[in-house]
């Protein structure tokens, strides 16, 4: 038995993703926020805040590999989706692949 093949969605070229600003794409009825840090690292998370009141994450502020949510002052690790202490929660994370300047996200 082999590993399952990951389904990839083409979301554009790397230059479409501005540094430290989120961009939303839709896939299978879900909104996915894609963030580029100050380097060329991309992160993809479900565009849904795990806070009980919810809200979008795409308007968050990126610093390093963390997203700072302006609505609730939460800090979220872009690599793992984990909300940092003292708050708790987790955001669904999608894999990102960059190949020849093209960006793909996987589920």
TrEMBL record:
<dbReference type="GO" id="GO:0051537">
    <property type="term" value="F:2 iron, 2 sulfur cluster binding"/>
</dbReference>
<keyword id="KW-0560">Oxidoreductase</keyword>
<dbReference type="GO" id="GO:0008942">
    <property type="term" value="F:nitrite reductase [NAD(P)H] activity"/>
</dbReference>
<keyword id="KW-0411">Iron-sulfur</keyword>
<keyword id="KW-0479">Metal-binding</keyword>
<keyword id="KW-0001">2Fe-2S</keyword>
<dbReference type="InterPro" id="IPR036922">
    <property type="entry name" value="Rieske_2Fe-2S_sf"/>
</dbReference>
<keyword id="KW-0408">Iron</keyword>
<dbReference type="GO" id="GO:0004497">
    <property type="term" value="F:monooxygenase activity"/>
</dbReference>
<dbReference type="GO" id="GO:0016705">
    <property type="term" value="F:oxidoreductase activity, acting on paired donors, with incorporation or reduction of molecular oxygen"/>
</dbReference>
<dbReference type="GO" id="GO:0046872">
    <property type="term" value="F:metal ion binding"/>
</dbReference>
<dbReference type="GO" id="GO:0042128">
    <property type="term" value="P:nitrate assimilation"/>
</dbReference>
<feature type="domain" description="Rieske">
    <location>
        <begin position="9"/>
        <end position="105"/>
    </location>
</feature>
<dbReference type="InterPro" id="IPR017941">
    <property type="entry name" value="Rieske_2Fe-2S"/>
</dbReference>
<dbReference type="Pfam" id="PF13806">
    <property type="entry name" value="Rieske_2"/>
</dbReference>
<keyword id="KW-0534">Nitrate assimilation</keyword>
<dbReference type="InterPro" id="IPR012748">
    <property type="entry name" value="Rieske-like_NirD"/>
</dbReference>
<protein>
    <submittedName>
        <fullName>Nitrite reductase small subunit NirD</fullName>
    </submittedName>
</protein>
């Amino acid at each position: 038995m082999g590993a399952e093949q990951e389904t990839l969605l083409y979301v554009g070229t790397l230059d479409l993703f501005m540094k430290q600003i989120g961009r939303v794409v839709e896939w299978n009825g879900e909104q996915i926020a894609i963030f580029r840090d100050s380097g060329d690292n991309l992160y993809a998370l479900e565009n849904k805040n795990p806070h009980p009141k919810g809200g979008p994450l795409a308007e968050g502020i990126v610093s390093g590999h963390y997203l700072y949510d302006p609505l609730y002052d939460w800090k979220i690790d872009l690599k793992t989706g984990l909300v940092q202490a003292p708050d708790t929660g987790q955001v669904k994370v999608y894999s990102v692949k960059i190949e020849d300047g093209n960006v793909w996200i996987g589920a």
